Request: fold
Amino acid sequence: MRTRIVVDPSSSFGVREALASLPDVDAVYATDERAVARALEEIPVLVTKLWHDEYLRPGLRWVQTGSAGYERFPIEELRRRGIVLCGGRGLHAVVAEHAIALLLAAMRDIHVSVRRMADRRWEPHVGQELAGRTAVVAGLGTIGEGIARRLGGWDVRLVGVTRTPTSYRGILSDVRPLAELAAACAEASVLFVALPQAPETRGLVSAAVLDALGRGYVVNVARGPLVDEAALVERLTDGRLAGAGLDVVESEPLASSSPLWTLPNVVLTPHMGGSSPRYAGRFAELLSENLRAFHGLGPWRDRIC
Reply:
């Protein structure tokens, strides 16, 4: 049974390859949001990372996003209209590796040596150690749990913070609610931010949380608005924080005037933590399962509404 799908131009790297591998899919690659809206007059399925209200067409029946987060989507309106929204939980497990890479680069000052390569400057310097420290992992979904699993044998004490500690079933033994984030950071020198963006998590990493962390390291691979960026910059500038590894910022792309570009204790990547050559295969598997569900042949995977 063939299925027509509209693909928004915002869709992630690997989506085109994933759809090409599915023999019963006819994909329409729209060039802009107006073209998406026009195509949805006749096509019931949308693959997108972003949302525009023009996409609410009468025939729309299923929206598939490749993102783990879904804060951009009008959940209640989609539910009211009977439109299925499915997320991409599990597709971006590689973000856990990226988070650890950012931390190690910041702690060992690898980025400093990389910048000196252009001038052929051989200048050894002293980096910090991760072993023996305490790290807080804020957010224990696929990414946060992946960070914890990867650091399990690194002689690092791990404290988890999550919105639902009573329902947590992962590998960590010390798991606390969001309200105890500052207290957990007071015991730590590393904070990984891997929470989804939601009203209760926006600005969660506040000035008070950063001060509790002290001269530690912040790694954000979630969403920029979870961190008070002004407070972060202030503490990185005056040395109250030792460093930061950031794959996301409050407003993307990052403005050229931002001090985050030039602060010597910041490692910055352009929201690429989830990008991997293996993404297309994982997305194809997700789409295949949900195509079966769309035709009434199986359960939905990561259905949000």
Residues 18 and 285 are 8 Å apart (CA to CA). The longest strand covers residues 157-162.
